[in-house]
């Protein structure tokens, strides 16, 4: 008769220890969960990570490490993949996406954070065993040990092929097409264009400050509440060195909000421009999620009616929340290309056009790898159509502010130049409206940059319909 499993010849059960079940590192598991969500369902890290950190109640040090791991790994994906390509015996696209994200997570720790090899490898192997299985953990262990043997990022970059823009793309964690787009956008206006190009790309890799906008509260009071400091460009901006903006009383009440200082200047462009004739009706044409509408509502002169429109119902709802408590405002669910309002209905129109979002790469690091150059032409076509309708929506003499959170020439200068070629459109220079902001001019237009201004890379243009 056979013995029960685990019994010895004497009938006693073996007392061999059970296999070790690793306690997974909370910071690394959280970072992996965000990477997986970005890969598998196109999630946005800046929205998901705060949610997970709140749910998991990590200690402050672990939460900071999870944040560094998440954003750093997403940002460096191109360089990490270039290293891994030579160490895996199959195309990376053929790997289980979970395994590839785990390899990226471990490689980032070894190359950029200089986490001791034994810690980076062991914790990543433990995660792999728990998430994917024992078979995959052997592959991850072998590959990460080879990464560790190759040294830090600088040593690995020496081994990778690349010159010119290819080298710069690897060194600054950008796709080559974005490097080329930034080169064109910066132009030849600076004495050392190559050095500024690298500075602009590196600024995309730095963690941004949180900016607040004082809408219905004096800025001095918001500074006192938040412990921040006044922003240098917008009279409504406060910059925070740290902390949770959601704990600021004015933010909780809606009297203030989180808004990049560059976005504040985009709204102020429309409000500051001199206008001949009546000034009673303003339109925010692509208003979601409502930050610029909120500031326009706060700074408009008495008697001005503000209309805010967005074609997506859920974004229009966000605009309603942003404008809650404001009088003489209207929120519409409407496509600006087929508007419900009559031509010439407004005195001022803000068109914050849908774009690639390349100007906010420091806030959404995954966008640099999610977008491709093929995304630009259809967006430029949409932008041109919206700008045409925006110009039709203002009366003769009315103003249109065209802004995008992208410096890409095809989404900015090319779109506005085409509209300005009409004989009923006049371009107004942007820089004179912001004399306090240095290095703003991009020809007749304006361009903000993280490395120059500490803001997102917002493009600003101002047009007048002459007849």
Automatic annotation (TrEMBL):
Key words, A-Z: Methyltransferase, RNA-binding, S-adenosyl-L-methionine, Transferase
Report the residue ranges that make up the SAM-dependent MTase RsmB/NOP-type domain in this protein: 184-466
Composition bias (Basic residues) maps to 10-19
* Annotated active site: 405 (nucleophile)
Keyword S-adenosyl-L-methionine on entry = yes
GO annotation, biological process: regulation of DNA-templated transcription; RNA methylation
State the Gene Ontology terms under molecular function.
RNA binding; RNA methyltransferase activity
Transmembrane annotation, as ranges: none
For this protein, the record's InterPro entries field holds:
MeTrfase_RsmB-F_NOP2_cat, MeTrfase_RsmB-F_NOP2_dom, NusB-like_sf, NusB_RsmB_TIM44, RCMT, RsmB/NOL1/NOP2-like_CS, SAM-dependent_MTases_sf
* Region (Disordered), start-end ranges: 1-22
Binding, S-adenosyl-L-methionine: 286-292, 310, 335, 352
Domain of life of the organism encoding this protein = Bacteria
Record-stated family: Belongs to the class I-like SAM-binding methyltransferase superfamily. RsmB/NOP family.
Q: Provide the function of this protein.
A: May act as RNA methyltransferase.
- Official protein name in the record: 16S rRNA (Cytosine967-C5)-methyltransferase
For this protein, the record's Pfam families field holds: Methyltr_RsmB-F, NusB
């Amino acid at each position: 008769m056979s013995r029960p499993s685990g019994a010895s010849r004497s009938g006693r059960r073996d007392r061999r220890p059970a296999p070790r079940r690793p306690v997974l590192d909370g910071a690394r598991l959280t970072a992996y969960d965000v990477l997986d969500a970005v890969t598998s369902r196109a999630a946005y890290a800046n929205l998901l990570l705060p949610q997970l950190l709140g749910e998991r109640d990590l200690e402050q040090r672990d939460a900071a490490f999870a944040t560094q791991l998440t954003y750093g790994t997403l940002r460096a994906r191109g360089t990490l993949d270039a290293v891994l390509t030579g160490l895996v015996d199959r195309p990376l696209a053929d790997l289980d996406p979970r395994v590839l994200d785990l390899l990226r997570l471990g490689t980032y720790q070894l190359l950029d954070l200089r986490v001791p090899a034994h810690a980076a490898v062991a914790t990543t192997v433990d995660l792999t065993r728990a998430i994917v299985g024992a078979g995959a953990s052997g592959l991850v262990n072998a590959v990460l040990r080879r990464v560790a043997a190759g040294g830090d990022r600088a040593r690995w970059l020496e081994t990778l092929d690349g010159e010119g823009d290819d080298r710069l793309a690897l060194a600054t964690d950008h796709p080559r097409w974005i490097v080329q787009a930034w080169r064109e956008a910066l132009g030849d206006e600076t004495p050392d264009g190559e050095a500024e190009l690298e500075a602009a790309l590196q600024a995309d890799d730095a963690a941004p400050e949180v900016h607040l906008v004082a809408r219905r509260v004096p800025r001095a009071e918001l500074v006192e509440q938040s412990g921040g400091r006044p922003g240098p460009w917008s009279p409504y901006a406060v910059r925070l060195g740290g902390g949770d903006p959601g704990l600021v009383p004015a933010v909780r009440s809606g009297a203030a909000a989180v808004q990049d200082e560059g976005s504040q200047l985009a709204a102020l462009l429309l409000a500051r421009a001199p206008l001949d004739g009546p000034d009673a009706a303003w339109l925010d044409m692509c208003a979601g999620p409502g930050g610029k509408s909120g500031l326009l509502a706060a700074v408009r002169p008495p008697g001005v009616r503000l209309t805010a429109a967005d074609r997506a119902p859920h974004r229009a709802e966000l605009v309603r929340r942003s404008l809650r408590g404001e009088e003489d405002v209207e929120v519409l669910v409407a496509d600006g290309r087929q508007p419900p309002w009559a031509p010439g209905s407004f005195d001022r129109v803000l068109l914050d056009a849908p774009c690639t979002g390349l100007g906010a790469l420091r806030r959404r690091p995954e966008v640099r790898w999610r977008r491709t150059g093929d995304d630009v032409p259809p967006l430029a076509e949409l932008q041109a159509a919206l700008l045409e309708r925006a110009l039709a929506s203002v009366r003769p003499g009315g103003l249109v502010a065209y802004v995008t959170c992208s410096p890409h020439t095809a989404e900015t200068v090319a779109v506005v130049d085409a509209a300005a070629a009409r004989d009923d459109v006049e371009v107004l220079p942007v820089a004179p409206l912001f004399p306090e902001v240095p290095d703003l001019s991009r020809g007749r237009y304006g361009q903000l940059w993280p490395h120059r201004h500490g803001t997102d890379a917002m493009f600003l243009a101002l047009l007048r319909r002459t007849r």
